Amino acid sequence: MVDPRAAFSQAEQARFDRDGFVILQRFLTAEGLSLLRQSVDAVLAEKDAGADEEWIVNLHQVLPPELNWMWALATHPLVLSMVRASLGPHVVLYASQIHRKPPGGSASGGGGHLVPMHQDGGGDVRFRPSAQTAPTCPITSSASDMCSRCRTLWLPLDDVDASNGSLQVLRGWHTRGRLPLRQIACAAELPAAEYFARYHVFASDLAGITGAAVPARRRAGAGAGAGAGAGAGAGGEGGAALVGAANGRDLAVYRVRAGGLAMHHPLAPHGSRPNTSARDRRVLILRYMARRGRATDEGWARCHRGRGWFRKEALEAAEGAPPPRPADVTPRLPPSVQ
Ligand SMILES: O=C(O)CCC(=O)C(=O)O
């Protein structure tokens, strides 16, 4: 599934440490990409009509063990080496996700949601103290907080760029600690805020740092601009087109080929725009954290088949670890329907 030439070098780790994200343009083989596309399309075709195709989560808990492609991906040695390089030897997978933004014309505003710029890991994972150490995870705190012990891998199964809702990240902002949350300014903003709160996504207050005021700009070596196709060359800063600068920081939009792989830091503010292109945007997301305490989560994830709701469970991720059997995770109804 994974291209044997793919590697995560010290230079890439250094880039991650500097920028808060890193992109590997080459990760999957052509066969691996094709297999994952087919698998994802089968899930999308079978899913319950009510399941949100941007939030098909934790398939690794419910796929049959012999066909658990999500787990195989999540425990691939290269994937684990990327995550362990910053989190240490013991990591757990605490969520997997399919996030599709269907093609949508710009006239309709595009397919999928505008994901607001936010940081990860602030509110959705609670750490219960282990026998040894771990304190309870605070929802807000400094850059050194326990919540920064998460890493997110983002695998596009289609070429992605600004026109089909690729991820955008404020480069280098992961060093600034946890940002204040953005207050809702008017009633019209409430539905989107409620939608994202369901998934524990809370917009950061960037107070005029992003948005129309940010001048378009390109940096030498960054390849074509944000509006260009992913195939237009993805050189420079590992495939991220720089589209703006504010307060000396850069807004980078990932420009990644299908089958590439990106990793971001939880404190790097990131989001995405709707897909205004005629191309699909199918992405797989894997979320890890360092294993210190026992992770619990009071949120709930809707099963793709609409058969029930599955609790998020943090599973030790190691090479060759057997996939979880569906019986290992406890289906429970969310409080609203109990
Ligand atoms: O893929 C997206 O548009 C959003 C992903 C995201 O917020 C994340 O992976 O943390």
Give a written overview of the molecule.
- By secondary structure, the protein is of the alpha+beta class.
- Helices cover 16% and strands 23% of the residues.
- The termini are far apart.
- The structure holds 2-oxoglutaric acid.
Question: Can you give keywords for this protein?
Answer:
338 residues, alpha+beta, seven-stranded antiparallel sheet, five-stranded antiparallel sheet, 5 helices, 16 strands, 16% helix, globular, disordered C terminus, binds 2-oxoglutaric acid
Rg to the nearest angstrom?
19 Å
**Secondary-structure element pattern, one letter each:** HEHEHHEEEEEHEEEEEEEEE
Low-confidence stretches: 123-144, 211-236, 293-311, 333-338
Number of helices: 5
Class computed from helices, strands and strand pairing: alpha+beta
State the helical fraction. 10-25%
Largest sheet: 7 strands, antiparallel
The strand count comes to 16
Report the end-to-end length measured between terminal Cα atoms: 41 Å
Name the average pLDDT: 78
